[in-house]
Amino acid sequence: MQSRAIRKLLHSKWTAQQVVDKQKHFIVTKLIEPECPDAPVSEVEIEAVMTKRLRIIPWRELDNPLQWKRGW
């Protein structure tokens, strides 16, 4: 994904293929900006819908269909 496509991840909805901490549905709530302004975004913050628990994951993890499915 390029920078523009990564920006589209913000507020997107995801379903974990396997339950994570008793949660299955997540929303991307934040793009984690790298310390170096020229570096690309490599991580996102996701929030569990039910518990509001936050996790930071590499955004490329969302491309893995064995781990994540887009939407609920």
Could you explain the architecture of this structure?
By secondary structure, the chain is mainly beta. The protein is 7% helix and 44% strand. It has 1 helix and 5 strands. It has one helix at 3-7; strands at 13-20, 23-32, 43-48, 54-58, 68-70. Strands 4-3-2-1-5 form a 5-stranded antiparallel β-sheet, with no helix packed on it. β3 and β4 (54-58) form a beta hairpin.
Structural class: mainly beta
Helix share bin: under 10%
**Strand order in space, largest sheet:** 4-3-2-1-5
| Percentage of β-strand residues | 35-45%
* pLDDT < 50 stretches: none
Distance between the termini: 21 Å
* Mean model confidence by pLDDT: 91
| Structural Rg | 12 Å
Query: What is the 3D form?
Result: globular
Question: Given the structure, what is the number of helices?
Answer: 1
